[in-house]
């Protein structure tokens, strides 16, 4: 059974990362390379975690189909709070790393890191440590970002999914179709989202959620 789950939609990167983690299986106490699994989307990752109680660590890319930013991290942490999540990104701007910390990640891996460095970072997180790029661990987490993450974390799993759909401009009817629920249920979720986020309308909710967005113009 998988012990580490790589969530990334780029097969070449997934394969290279798995190779980095399994070239010295004894370092991570892996019995074989089969203990590192893949998911290409957040939904697939959640389904795998629901079926597999042995996963200790998720390596999460910030840019995935249907999820572009930190809402996916919040959803993972809310659904599986005992599983550590390491964020992976080619965008190692301090603001991105700060958002990862505010949203409950156990660390941050840059896609430009050397294989040995990735291996040691993963080893530390599996032992209960955190891993942040040099100097970032000492930077105080932005209190406003922490407050936004706290408010969003009050949402149920389904409300988080609805919020992600609102972010990409989906109408209630489209959200209902995508999530296979009634339009009335979507409206009820939207009302609850406004209340929990302390906003008045969809525009304000999306602006708030977009504070946890990653700039798509920057390398992923």
UniProtKB/TrEMBL annotation:
Top-level taxon: Bacteria
Keywords assigned by UniProt, alphabetized: DNA-binding, Phosphoprotein
Gene3D superfamilies, alphabetized: 3.40.50.2300
Protein name (database record): Transcriptional regulator, LuxR family
Provenance organism: Reinekea forsetii
Annotated Response regulatory domain residues: 3-126
Coiled coil: none
UniProt xrefs under PROSITE patterns: HTH_LUXR_1, HTH_LUXR_2, RESPONSE_REGULATORY
Record-level Gene Ontology MF annotations: DNA binding
A Pfam family per the record: Response_reg
InterPro entries: CheY-like_superfamily, EvgA-like, NreC/VraR/RcsB-like_REC, Sig_transdc_resp-reg_C-effctor, Sig_transdc_resp-reg_receiver, Tscrpt_reg_LuxR_C
């Amino acid at each position: 059974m998988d012990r580490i789950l790589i969530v990334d939609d780029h097969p070449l990167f997934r394969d290279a990362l798995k190779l980095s983690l399994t070239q010295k299986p004894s370092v991570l106490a892996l019995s074989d390379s089969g203990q590192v699994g893949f998911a290409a989307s957040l939904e697939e990752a959640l389904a795998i975690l629901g079926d597999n109680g042995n996963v200790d660590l998720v390596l999460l890319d910030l840019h995935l189909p249907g999820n572009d930013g930190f809402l996916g991290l919040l959803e993972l942490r809310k659904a599986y709070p005992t599983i550590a999540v390491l964020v992976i990104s080619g965008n190692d701007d301090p603001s991105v790393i700060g958002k990862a910390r505010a949203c409950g990640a156990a660390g941050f891996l840059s896609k430009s890191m050397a294989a040995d460095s990735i291996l040691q970072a993963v080893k530390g997180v599996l032992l209960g440590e955190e891993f942040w790029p040099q100097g970032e661990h000492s930077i105080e987490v932005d209190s406003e970002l922490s407050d936004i993450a706290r408010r969003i974390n009050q949402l149920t799993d389904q409300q988080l999914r609805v919020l992600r759909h609102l972010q990409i401009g989906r109408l209630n009817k489209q959200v209902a179709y995508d999530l296979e629920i009634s339009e009335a249920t979507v409206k009820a979720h939207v009302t609850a989202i406004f209340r929990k986020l302390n906003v008045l309308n969809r525009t304000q909710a999306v602006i708030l959620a977009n504070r946890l967005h990653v700039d798509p113009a920057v390398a992923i």
